[in-house]
Amino acid sequence: MQTNIQLAYNALIAQGYYDEDIRLFSSNAINIANIQTVPLQEVNVLKDWIGETRDVTVYLTGKSKDSFMLTESNCLSYSQLNDALLNCDQSIVIFDSAIEQQYLENLSCENRIIVSSMNDLSQYSFSGFFWNNIQDGFTINKAFESAQSTFTLINPGQKPIIIEPDGSTLSKNFYIAMGVSYVPGEVLTSSSIEINDYIITADITSPEAIFSVFAEISYENQEICNIIKLEYVNNVFIAEIPAECFAYSGLYEVKITIVFSNGYPYVTTKEHTHTQGMDTYEPDNSYENATWYDVALFETQYHNFYEINDEDWIKFEVDEKDIHKISISQLGRENDVRFKLLKGMDVLYDINNAGLQSDEKFEIDLDPGTYYLCILPADESIVGIHTQYSLTIGKKSAEGFSFCATINDFLTNMLINNAKFYAFANGMLHSSPKECITLGNEDCDKVFAEHIHYFEETKIIGVAASKLEYSGVDLKLWPQNKGILILNIKSQGNPVTNASILPMCDQPYTITSDCFGNYTMINVPVDTVFQLNVDYFKPMSIQSTLYYKDVLESSQKFQVRTRFMHEKLDWQKPSI
Fold it and tell me: What are the structural domains of the chain?
């Protein structure tokens, strides 16, 4: 029993369910990670859990005949099980026990699929074959037939059965994934997908109406770099690929998701090999061609070593004597950097303190003048792939202060505990999952303070498509002075260009984010509340930055509070 339940659990998790979607009822101790076993003493426990659930999959494994044994003294009759499932729009019941066919037929109804791995004369289970097929994304009918074919070769006397009102119509059109999901048969008449370093083109013909097409780009089984929405132009779906999606040399997987108007997503994948090109600051391979770095802005520059003998030269100015921090971080896994610090043509330091994929951080008291950095790989044979790094340069001479942020749900006003926010102090990154970050008096004289919220896409239930709409976002700014508010609104890395921000009792500002990450800057009055309106299909992050140009007092605090609301809009599901 333990093995069968583990296989079912593995398949459900692989198909998009979460632990909170799964209930394990048993009178025996079952050890499944993250799932608590609930004693099932009576049918009301099952009925209460099912409640008004629209779509449910029930898997029963154990002893049965004319009823299913819950405990030695308590049984679940099939009429009771039928009553518990009556309010469900769709249900799948899977028996892994010896049961007479007449009882299975009595459970049959218009919107229910019943699968039994054993009839009343059988003694073996085929759960392993069935659940493995479900995990591989088979429809219920295909999973059943494959398991039946495999297992009856092993045990010819086995007689698995599948019962549904319309022959095998339902089971051919449904699979177990994120609810009992509808499969509309042949959805593509033809498709041609072309990918290069700059553009994705999808020429798709289908009898089904297409709601939208997305491309997910991931690098060598790593996290998704970006989700790009393809637009329908001249009878094809097309999108430009942002340069940051192909940041490294290597093999990329591009997953194309076609969402049809009935909510069914069709997924296909293609591979694309990208050869790393130069970073955006090239050519900067010499003293004469050094890239200018403005210490006052303490920006982050991103570089790489894209070819043999590639060096990155940086030029910056110190206007007054002060301690400065030089930080080289976010190194690729093949990267080990060294750098030289020069004043004019004189080499002051040659630094290689850290090792492979380790940050180089250096503090030095600098006099006024013009300085240069020469950054190069410690191992000159490592170039191209996995050689990226980031660079920041800034002062270390400000009074200390605290940055606080609370991120609350718009409807409940409950604190979102897993939200993260960041403070950038003269290029040095400070992050915390807590409510406040305290920076010492040596950390900064100019500050970027950011908090970033990541929303997970609302799970698709049944055959309903999921559309996310974020609205009612309040931004309230403290303390009693002015600053510049920068809003950068993105969906999985893509800027959202159709957003607007509305200060109360004023005209709306339009956020002009473009594909290069540029966005609107707004002068913020004291203690202002803004209303942010966005309509976008995919999960998105809202990054609000409050930027103070003036030195902050050691006792001064500022706070940005963002509340958000999201709702799921269901598409009309097809009747079955």
Answer: 2-182 (3.40.50.1460), 190-274 (2.60.40.1220), 291-395 (2.60.120.380), 401-570 (no CATH)
